[in-house]
C-alpha cells in the first residue's frame, strides 16, 4: 500500500480524495506548513498538493519538500 499525503485547505476535497484512495494509507494536511512537517515525519510515496492555500502555498511547500 502506498502512503499518500493529501494537502488541501478545503476539507471536502480531502474527504473526497480519502474515499477515492481508500486502498492506500492516507495522511492529511490543511496547508503548506503542515505538508512540509508531515512529509518529513511520514515520508509518503505520493503527495497530492493544492496550489492555493493559506500560510504557505503548494508551490513553496513543494520547493521545501524537494
Number of domains: 1
Instruction: Estimate what percentage of residues fall within beta strands.
Output: 15-25%
> Would you identify the CATH H-level superfamily?
Response regulator
Question: Which CATH class applies here?
Answer: Alpha Beta
- Helix-strand string: EHEHEH
User: What is the overall pLDDT average?
Assistant: 96
Shape estimate: globular
Q: Would you identify the CATH architecture?
A: 3-Layer(aba) Sandwich
The biggest sheet, with number of strands, parallel, antiparallel or mixed sense and barrel status, is:
3 strands, parallel
Low-confidence spans: none
Q: What is CATH's topology name? A: Rossmann fold
Helix/strand structural class = alpha/beta
Q: How far do the termini sit from each other?
A: 23 Å
- SS elements, strand count: 3
Give, in spatial order, the strands making up the sheet with the most strands.
2-1-3
Count of DSSP H/I helices:
3
What's the gyration radius in Å? 11 Å
Amino acid at each position: 500500500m502506498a502512503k499518500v499525503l493529501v494537502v488541501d485547505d478545503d476539507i471536502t476535497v480531502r474527504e473526497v480524495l480519502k474515499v477515492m484512495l481508500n486502498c492506500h494509507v492516507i495522511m492529511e494536511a490543511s496547508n503548506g506548513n503542515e505538508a512540509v512537517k508531515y512529509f518529513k515525519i511520514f515520508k509518503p510515496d505520493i503527495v497530492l498538493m493544492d496550489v492555493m492555500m493559506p500560510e504557505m502555498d503548494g508551490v513553496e511547500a513543494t520547493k521545501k519538500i524537494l
